[in-house]
Specification:
By secondary structure, the protein is an alpha+beta fold. It has six helices and four strands. Helices cover 57% and strands 14% of the residues.
Length: 129
């Protein structure tokens, strides 16, 4: 008998882009009974990750079988756990495509979403004080 892996995802549920995408995966995982846990970095679960809030807000983190992944490798691990997304994981994981995806995520997409996150936080702080 093969034991299923346990996958955990750390994401920013306050980010509209992040929550839209990751909540889609969470709904899919729940519907199919997949052993994937989704932790909001703004909640108490983040402490168990050992990652501070600012670092966690910069990119996606996935822990699978005790190994920590971030960025595109994190997406690949998450997608591999979900039958509907395994083909996407294979394609994005191909040499060349993986490097291009990682470069795009690391240099453009993740920093853009992070700056948007900081602006939302600053705006919320200025409106509350």
């Amino acid at each position: 008998m093969t034991e299923r892996s346990h996958t955990k995802v750390l994401f920013n549920d306050d980010c509209p882009v992040c929550s839209f995408e990751i909540n889609h995966y969470a709904t899919y995982a729940k519907k199919h009974g997949l052993p994937i846990q989704f932790d909001d970095l703004n909640g108490p679960e983040r402490a168990a990750w050992g990652i501070d809030e600012d670092t966690a807000a910069r990119r996606l983190y996935v822990q699978r079988d005790g190994q920590l992944y971030d960025g595109i490798p994190a997406f690949l691990e998450l997608w591999r756990e979900m039958p509907r997304y395994r083909l996407l994981a294979k394609v994005v994981g191909l040499p060349g495509i993986k490097q291009l995806a990682a470069f795009s995520y690391d240099r453009a997409l993740a920093p853009l979403i992070y700056r948007w996150h900081l602006r939302r936080k600053a705006r919320a702080a200025s409106q509350s004080g």
